[in-house]
């Protein structure tokens, strides 16, 4: 079941299954990857209560192990509608006996999609409804079409960062752990990173503690594409398939947390950038994508 929101000639379609953004269109032009399983069968999963892979595919909380799939369980859960208007929809889920087999905390997970002009904002509200401190990670994973227009090439596009950056990506090891110390130099100085397929040969580029809170994914000649803002997130991952793939999308992933690092165990409390939320408290964060045309 899907929900459609509209702002003038811009629309977005969101699936109640996982709160996944299925479409972001302006004047009939689609900006979201349309889930060809030849390359990747998703397009914009929401990541909660973990990000990416876990060590031994389990989460340890207070000494007890829980099975957990990649990116957590929200992506596979049916959400309910809390509020709906022409240009906005809020969806939510709460803990159930089934989620407690995977994650022992009591919570309410809410996500709101709001269209204002050409900008789509995804806003999270995580409430701790239990009686103990809650630990979690949170992220987004939207995939944008690259190239966007017919006749263009993947290499016609580039990332333009808000600030001058030295971009070093956490190396992904052979066992799929993320190195806490080894970094791959991606950009030694500057704001512009031209897209090349071999940038992704080691999996995602993972930029922890990045200075910029905005990046434009745009055609290097026309300047058209997507402006992506992530004011509340400390890590930005950028992912698509590496060589020899020709996967026609790029994911811009704002993260609070990370997949399992090579200096971590499966203990949730030890995870990099894990968030702590006291009983009765609400955590909020948002990111946005704006069409540049």
UniProtKB/TrEMBL annotation:
Gene3D superfamilies the UniProt entry points to: 2.70.98.10
A Pfam family assignment: Aldose_epim
Any one GO MF annotation of this record: isomerase activity
InterPro entries assigned to the protein according to its UniProt record, in alphabetical order: Aldose_1/G6P_1-epimerase, Gal_mutarotase_sf_dom, GH-type_carb-bd, LacX
GO terms, biological process: carbohydrate metabolic process
Entry superkingdom: Bacteria
Name of protein: Aldose 1-epimerase family protein
Species this protein is from: Ructibacterium gallinarum
């Amino acid at each position: 079941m899907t929900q459609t929101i509209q702002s003038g000639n811009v629309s977005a379609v969101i699936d109640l299954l996982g709160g996944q953004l299925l479409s972001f269109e302006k004047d009939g032009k689609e900006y979201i990857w349309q889930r060809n399983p030849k390359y990747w069968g998703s397009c914009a999963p929401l990541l909660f209560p973990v990000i990416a892979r876990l060590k031994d595919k389990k989460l340890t909380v207070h000494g007890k192990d829980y099975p957990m799939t990649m990116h957590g369980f929200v992506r596979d859960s049916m959400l309910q509608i809390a509020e709906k208007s022409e240009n906005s929809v809020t969806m939510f889920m709460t803990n159930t006996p089934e989620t407690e087999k995977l994650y022992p905390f009591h919570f309410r997970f809410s996500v709101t999609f709001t269209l204002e002009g050409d900008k789509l904002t995804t806003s999270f509200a995580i409430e701790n409804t239990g009686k103990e401190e809650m630990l979690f990670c949170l992220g987004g994973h939207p995939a944008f079409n690259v190239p966007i227009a017919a006749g263009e090439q993947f290499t016609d596009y580039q990332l333009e960062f808000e600030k001058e950056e030295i971009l070093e990506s956490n190396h992904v090891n052979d066992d799929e752990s993320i190195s806490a110390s080894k970094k791959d130099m991606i950009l030694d100085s500057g704001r512009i990173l031209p897209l090349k397929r071999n940038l992704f040969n080691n999996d995602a580029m993972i930029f922890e503690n990045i200075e910029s809170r905005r990046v434009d994914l745009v055609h290097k000649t026309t300047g058209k594409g997507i402006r992506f803002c992530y004011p509340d997130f400390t890590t930005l991952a950028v992912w698509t398939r590496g060589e020899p793939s020709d996967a026609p999308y790029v994911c811009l992933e704002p993260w609070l947390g990370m997949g399992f690092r090579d200096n971590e165990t499966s203990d949730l409390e030890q995870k990099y950038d894990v968030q702590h939320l006291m009983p009765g408290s609400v955590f909020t964060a948002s990111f946005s994508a704006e069409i540049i045309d």
